[in-house]
Write a structure and sequence with these properties.
By secondary structure, this protein is α/β, with parallel strands linked by helices. The chain has helices spanning 47-60, 76-79, 96-102, 104-113, 118-126, 196-207, 223-237, and strands at 11-14, 17-21, 28-33, 38-41, 68-70, 89-93, 133-135, 138-142, 147-152, 162-166, 172-180, 212-217. The strands form two sheets. A seven-stranded mixed beta sheet has the order 1-2-3-4-5-6-7, with no helix packed on it. Strand 3 (28-33) and strand 4 form a beta hairpin. This is MBL fold metallo-hydrolase.
Length: 240
């Protein structure tokens, strides 16, 4: 690497692991870097935002490219920058690719409703790259000296929630919008509230008590925060 994480705009969380907090919706994109490959977790809300993430990634990696992408769930602010990363292998929870292909109009409408310029939303949706690799349980990727685990952790925030665990000291769990810190967890029409607490139990089992948990929006949290959010969601849905 040519520069330190912070010098290229990243927040380093553990050796080979960092994240960016993006403007607008305070969404997070994560990065795991090995000697042979680099995996990006979520790609931003537009092609322009994706290109900005790509530029910061190349600065950090001395010109190396992102080789793998994991998409946390099929909402516009996490997926519409994917086409900025040509040639990357894209992973998503099983069923996500079909949903994105089937509901491109809904993705566009959601982006515009939340403030993305219509022309930018249309361009990103037209060029949208759906996941080629469907994760139905767990998949481990070896990036060269760094292994990451992709886990189909939902349903919860949506029917297609994909988490990422990077083991280490500390372990880092990228949660997508199963966990939110900068606001209350958002339960839209595609949420599955009754099963959301169980998804958070799976995240806690993945990371354990000492892990760092990276929400889809907001600051990094600990296991106690995730457990408290889990209990609040369970109370809201009438579960246990």
């Amino acid at each position: 690497m040519n520069v330190a994480w912070e010098e290229s705009g990243w927040e380093q969380l553990a050796p080979g692991v960092g994240r960016l907090r993006l403007p607008g919706w305070d969404a997070t994109t994560g990065l795991a870097v090995g000697t042979d490959a680099a995996l990006l977790y979520d790609t931003g809300s537009t092609l322009r935002e994706g290109a900005g993430i790509r530029a910061r990634t190349r600065t950090l990696l001395g010109g190396r490219r992102v080789t793998h992408i994991a998409l946390s769930h099929p909402h516009f602010d996490h997926v519409l920058g994917t086409a900025a990363f040509a040639g990357a292998e894209v992973y998503g929870a099983v069923g996500m690719a079909e949903l994105l292909t089937r509901d491109a109009a809904g993705l566009y409408e959601d982006a515009v409703r939340h403030g993305v310029a219509a022309a930018e939303a249309a361009e990103a949706v037209d060029l949208l790259v759906a996941p080629r690799h469907a994760v139905s349980g767990e998949v481990t990727l070896d990036l060269g000296g760094l292994r990451v685990l992709l886990a189909n952790a939902g349903p919860g925030h949506t029917a297609h929630d994909l988490a990422m665990l990077v083991p280490g000291s500390p372990a880092v769990v990228f949660c997508g919008d199963l966990v939110e810190e900068s606001g209350e967890p958002q339960a839209g029409p595609d949420a599955v509230p009754a099963r959301w607490p169980a998804a958070l139990d799976r995240l806690l089992a993945l990371g354990g008590e000492d892990a760092l948990y990276v929400p889809g929006h907001g600051a990094v949290v600990d296991a106690a925060f995730v457990r408290a959010q889990r209990d609040a969601l369970a109370a809201r849905s009438g579960g246990s």
